[in-house]
What we know:
The chain is mainly beta. The chain has 2 helices and 28 strands. The longest helix is centred in the first third of the chain and has 6 residues, at 2-7.
Amino acid sequence: xxxxxxTLALVLTMALSGCxxxxxxxxxxxxxxxxxxxxxxxxxxxxxxxxxxEMALSPTGDALYVASAEGFKDVQGGMVYKLDPATLKTxxxxxxxxxxxxxxxxPDGKTLYVTNSLDGGISAINTADGKVKAxxxxxxxxxxxxxxxxxxxxxxxxxxxxxxxxxxxxxxxVDANTLKLKTRIKNTGxxxxxxxxxxxxxxxxxxxxxxxxxxxxxRNNRVEQRWKPLGEKPALLLNLAEDADxxxxxxxxxxxxxxxxxxxxxxxxxxxxxxxxxxxSVLFNPKRHEIYISQRDSGKVLSLDATRYTVKxxxxxxxxxxxxxxxxxxxxxxxxxxxxxxxxxxxxxxxxVVRLDLTH
Length: 360
């Protein structure tokens, strides 16, 4: 277990996790500190379990699924929790023999896909009965004989794209209906992290630990462009979100540059660099024209005006806000909040799920 944990330290410390105005051409930061904390009446918080990572809302909005790896010390397997989005009370739970990290849900809400990062695989879960109905374990091994970490997972049509935390990295391309491996996208740099598909451009965007954004054609799975927005500066690009109306791609870096980049999704040009502090998960909300950023180190979640890039609100959610999920109507934001690890891989308490009402 110790070797596995050291291999996937990157996975455990990073987020698992997506305007009518024209963006500014300036590359300098303009974000301002929040003037006040958000009132506590806006927040519903529940301590749930160890090892919480990504979330997914059912298409009908009546269930919030939370992927859990559970404990990393003397605990085998994981859980997928089904919560009431309004109250965060438990509606159901699936016990799994492998640990769960990233998550996607089908448009019909019938299937959840989760990554089993420590074992280098993915599982499909039937939401009707909570049973694991299919699984794929990838064959790749690193120099220590351990599986490549399956980090982020993206569902596009009938295809799953799964990023491998490895050096060199790759992207597994999987049939979502059969969970059969279709092909591999290789030469993707070091540590494949964020994945995003743009309906506007018809392209897949992939972030990596080499400071690159890869532009991939999903029709032939070829890398068409490689952007390096920070040049030769050290960067571990992480999570991605898009404003489709203005063609902006938001990219976080919580390790090296500790910033959020705003890129032109067509050219990769840097429109703005937001120096709001450490940046982990990022979401764009077209309904409210806001950008949300979780700050693991600072223990905050920020809401930014998507035109001026100024901070509108700041929620204190210590110790470590992690993944973000937005309701379909754009009025509720869900956050997983993690506890720090002890030296023996235990944690100082259960992780939490937080519901933020954005209307106040």
